Amino acid sequence: MLRATFVALFTIAGMSLQGQPRWENPVKRQLAQGQPVIGATITVPSADVAARAANMGFDFLWIEMEHSAITLETARDMILATRGLKAVPFIRVPVNELWTAKRALDTGALGVIFPFTSTPELAHQAAQAVKYPPLGRRGAGPGLASFRWSGPESYYDFSDRNAMAIIIIEEKRAVERIEEIASTPGIDVIFIGTNDLSFSYGKRGDQNAPEVREAIARIVAAAKKNNIPVGRPAGSPELIAEYRKQGFTFFQGPSDVNLMGAGAEPLLRSLGKTGIDPKKQPLY
Fold first, then answer.
1. pLDDT tens for each residue of 99-125
2. SS3 113
3. How far apart are CA 152 and CA 72, in angstroms?
4. What is the pLDDT of residue 10?
5. 66 with 93: CB under 8 angstroms?
């Protein structure tokens, strides 16, 4: 009973049993302070690539499981390989379901990115998926996650404080109900999937079409009204500067493959080396 009393006192004071401040998700903290964060998009099924990217300076890893061949086994290896490095591991799951989020979190992700969150019901499901009862509906069986994030406090309490629910708005029908979606308790970031959003408006990748720009502005306004950070993809310093003026603070950076290409291109260009131009010579 005496130990329980000490634990409670330290918890109230925001301190661990060792007298150190409780660890806080740096992505969550920076966003709360209005600071920008950026993540590297990991599409290559490689723990080496993830570990390298995790200590380059990125705030988080966007481990891509919707549009890549990365499996849960590989994601687990990535998350273990990044232990102690700067970037916090997030996983974009293939679909907004309780079970996909549960498996991502139990693998050790500290945030789940939910695609096609196009209704208030799906937004509520996403928020519930990252919290344990009575706050949410996450099942209790963290396994590897409790090893990856082992510390003096209960993993359940640690995760409820630090795990993030990031929802993606990428359909016209979501924009039509964005005020309801944005007011859902427990949502940490509203991310705009600008490419899919343009397809939903029939523009097939034209993110500067007036209808798409108007939809983006409407999403940003709803997020700001509810004090929720808003994000979008950004692949260059110029775009980041432009989007920050619009109120964006959460950025999905380029993929590992694109970063490799950008790094190699100046070296190869200096020697006159180029690859095959698929516009002149199809690759199929």
1. 999 999 999 999 999 999 999 999 999
2. strand
3. 27
4. 42
5. yes
**Position 131, amino acid:** K
Query: Which token pair is 38?
Result: 């950026």
Domains in the chain with CATH codes = 24-256 (3.20.20.60)
Which 3 state secondary structure label does DSSP give 190? strand
Whole-number pLDDT of residue 143 = 86
Contacts by residues 33-37 (CB-CB < 8 Å, ≥ 24 positions apart): 34/249, 35/249, 36/240, 36/244, 36/248, 36/249, 36/250, 36/251, 37/249, 37/250, 37/251
Higher confidence at residue 22 or residue 68? Answer: 68
d(CA 92, CA 40): 12
Q: What was the pLDDT predicted at 250? A: 98
**DSSP letter string over 2-71?**
HHHHHHHHHHHTTB-TTSPBPP--HHHHHHHTT--EEEEEE-S--HHHHHHHHTTT-SEEEEE-SSS---
Q: What is the pLDDT of residues 176-232, one digit of tens each?
A: 999 999 999 999 999 999 999 999 999 999 999 999 999 999 999 999 999 999 999
- Cα gap 192→215, rounded to integer Å: 10
Q: Which two tokens stand for residue 18?
A: 């060792």
Q: Is 262 helix (H, G, I), strand (E, B) or coil?
A: helix
Beta bridge partners of 196: none
Q: How far is CA 128 from the centre of its chain?
A: 16
- Tell which residue, 32, 25, 29, 5, has the closest CA to residue 17: 5
Question: Is the model more confident about 202 or about 144?
Answer: 202
